[in-house]
Input
Amino acid sequence: MRDHRREIFAAVLATAAIAFVAPSFAGEGGHGGACRADRERLCADAPHERGAMRKCMRDHQSELSDECKQAMAERHAHWQERHHQGDASADDAAH
Output
């Protein structure tokens, strides 16, 4: 029987990455509401390519509102917490 731990771990990691990025810039949920005005003000001309909005927001990080910075920090901390839980789950499965 084939060991699928790597595939499972990769799927968990991909899901966490999507969960982190999608709500961030969708304008709904996550920190989209807190960052909407900043996004419209600083990145209205960002190309509609994968990762372009995130790069633009990062490039303008020093110009973001305090509310947006806080929301992004909270979302990132939540993502890291979930990411490390995935690591622990993969380690538990290995033993």
Remarks:
- The chain has one domain: 5-90.
- Residues 5-90 form one domain.
